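Handout, page 2. Input:
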Amino acid sequence: MQNRRSISPLRSRRAKLLAGVVALGTAGLLTAQTVVPSQMAQAEPVRVDAVPAFDFSDVVRTVSPAVVSVQVKQAAEPRMMNFGGRGNGGGEGFQDFSKGLPDGHPFERFFRDFGGKGGEEGQKQRRSPRQYGMSQGSGFFISKDGFVVTNHHVIDRGTEFTIIDQNGDKFEATLIGADKRTDLALLKVESDKDFTYVDFADDAPSVGEWTVAIGNPFGLGGSVTAGIVSARGRDIGAGPYDDFIQIDAPVNRGNSGGPAFNMKGEVIGVNAAIFSPSGGNVGIAFAIPASTAQDVIMELKDDGKVVRGWLGVQIQNVTNDIAESLGLEEARGAIVAEAQENSPAEKAGLRSGDTILAVEGTNVEGPRELSKIIAAFEPDSTVGVTIWRDGKEQDIDVTLGRLQETEQVAEAKPSQVDETKTSLKDLGLVVTTKAEAGLEGDGVVIAEIDPDGPAAEKRLNTGDVILEVAGMKVNNPADVLEALQKAEEDGRKAVLFRIEANDTTRFVALPMNLA
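Output:
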């Protein structure tokens, strides 16, 4: 990118021991003590001078003009609002707009919802007559001609978008595109002004590296916090492509979509979520890595959407028990619970029980890696997939389809059981046929679960349907007993059950030869 403002060298000073409490937001390296190998035999420990502390002011002064507030007008149904209160925001209401997470989930998408009257109307509850809502998050310019990066959950349901810069100037923006799966969005401001902008970092940050977060918490605007990179590669259950950077720089609602910088003033991540059992900051925040954001934003800029390859399988982790039951030497890959009907996987011959070990020579460590690998290919690409089937590796060519953004939510279907049952005491369950349970189709139904047995430990439930045992389809309790006997004769320490529950299938390995 051109015309990027350079960052002057950071000033340094000696770290000092403080007798009082250090205010949140200041930062410095602690005094380090190092033992030199050649001096280890000395009687007294050696010390080195204090490591210079960092002053973040140059970085902040340089990059702050590129960080903006994103104000979003949203279509909304009339809803109950709690007006009043003198707490955070001086009487303006707050609402948690967590997307795709269950109520009470500690991982929160965070931005601000505001509006309504406070003051004397106090804590009254009434239905809001307005037909729209206003929310506020953060963002940052990535080009001088006005492209702004933010989160998908910030602009979700938005009808109008306003960018507010550091000086308080407002600019109307249009939505270029958004990607729900990675929680990223791209806006565009049309203006003759050349905007100060920042770039994404080319290199991933190291754990322990300093980072500065700038954003718009609670509508305050232009707030700066600092911390370190706590971890990388975090999976928080937000989506199939989770690969978050964990940072401990304090961020709160309103920081969503804002940047996390390294000491060069490069964006290492886009702040997206916090871990917060209480709803406030506890020092655990998550940012979308620059590598992910840069690729997605480029696609949004070019096409307004992200196009991904699609395999069409339900997959799950290969645990040690599952690896043992399959004859794999180690737990790796992603096991296919089910190939979706008319999917590329089904057409290529992939089937339940296959374990995907590699795609185009790239090893698959688990479901998350498989999702990311497949998504990186264009639709209609033909890829070589290495699988584990019948105790050996096989190669299958699959022509990928196009991943659709529409998602189907499975609904739980209650099941009933009859009195005719067969007990599998060692496994801690009782099974019956589907016919005896008043159901149709293949498989046998779990009629009872011993709460202290192995099946309960693996989270099997009454009403779950067993479709296969050790690779054999089962339609009555006798089939289950036969499959278990064969697995025992083969010397298996665990046997693989294919389970159907709530319109989805998964594999569960239960231990054999229990004392």
